[in-house]
């Protein structure tokens, strides 16, 4: 009989992880790519480029905040579908899926009307004023029309991920991203004699159309490829209450997350237009990296929930180690590419010397934190799949109000400006990663 040391520990295969992770990476970067392409194209228009870039960055951050907050039902439905898939009980969530999609749609309408009406007040709170404020209002009121498209699409993507399939979401995102970039060039710069140059508003229209295309494709895959349907049941699914509870905790968690992003942009705007322009580039690159690395977190979310449903705790532990390794490798590759083209990256988004100088002086710090980010995002994904929403909420509250905010206040007081913002983010991510690793190790290593 072989000794225990020669018994191979049960593991999820590299192929199985990457079958979910790689399409999830491509799907996940679609939204930040839309914002990045808008910023790159807008930042190179001839008139008022710095003001337009600042407005696009502020709106992009606010949109990401709102979408992250409202899209927590995507994570919740993914966790429940994957857990029921693991326990061979998908029939128990068949009526839950259309109810969740409807919930996201109604929330998106509510948020659109509230935020569009109070747009001036919202962006004044970011310290935007004058031409920047005018640009943010007009750009946001068009881009916000895409909320219903995006949030319904995200709910459907959550179902796909719960079914261990991120390929369909990837296809939708690729087409949506291509449509957005193509329309950006047509509508921002115009075509002489055919399409007038619409500048910032043209970029917003391009984004909304792209989001509509993604929704149409997502609905096709949902109806044709999944065991679920869109028919609503008048009887509330018994899993709806746990889903709302999980989504509510993740909602509070994401509020804390976006409070940190709001503070960063508010402080940067207060420093001056060149600072918020540089911060807009830095933040959107950071978000792009986050969504890129998040592909492995999505794999952890989908597979982790399935393994929990099947009570396969040893495989779950090994999964965390493998995905951590892959996520860190991805982060290091991204760091290496950006280090190689360090000076050229800023030029993609803007040509203003002062903006580029500020960007270059801080960009190294954004790169340095990526391996820490990868650990935090990866365990975020696994904890979401396991339904550990309450703990995730508490970690974010502590990291934001006892880590990020005090660090920003102290370093801003001594005049570090953009350095204050990004060192505060570094502290924020460090607290998140340590808290999640310690909790997971204590709970799930013991269960093996």
UniProtKB/TrEMBL annotation:
Predominant localisation class: membrane
Annotated membrane-spanning segments are 20-43, 49-71, 101-126, 138-160, 172-191, 203-223, 243-264, 276-297, 323-342, 362-383, 395-413, 419-438
- Reading the lineage from the top rank, the first entry is Bacteria
Sorted UniProt keywords = Antiport, Cell membrane, Ion transport, Membrane, Transmembrane, Transmembrane helix, Transport
Q: Give a single Pfam family match.
A: MatE
Coiled-coil regions, chain positions: none
InterPro entries listed in its UniProt record: DinF-like, MATE_fam, MATE_MdtK, MdtK-like
Q: Kindly indicate whether the keyword Oxidoreductase belongs to this entry.
A: no
Where does it localize? Cell membrane
Q: Does the keyword Methyltransferase apply?
A: no
UniProt topology in membrane: Multi-pass membrane protein
- Protein family according to the UniProt entry: Belongs to the multi antimicrobial extrusion (MATE) (TC 2.A.66.1) family.
Q: What name appears for this protein in its UniProt entry?
A: Multidrug-efflux transporter
Q: Which organism is it from?
A: Psychroflexus longus
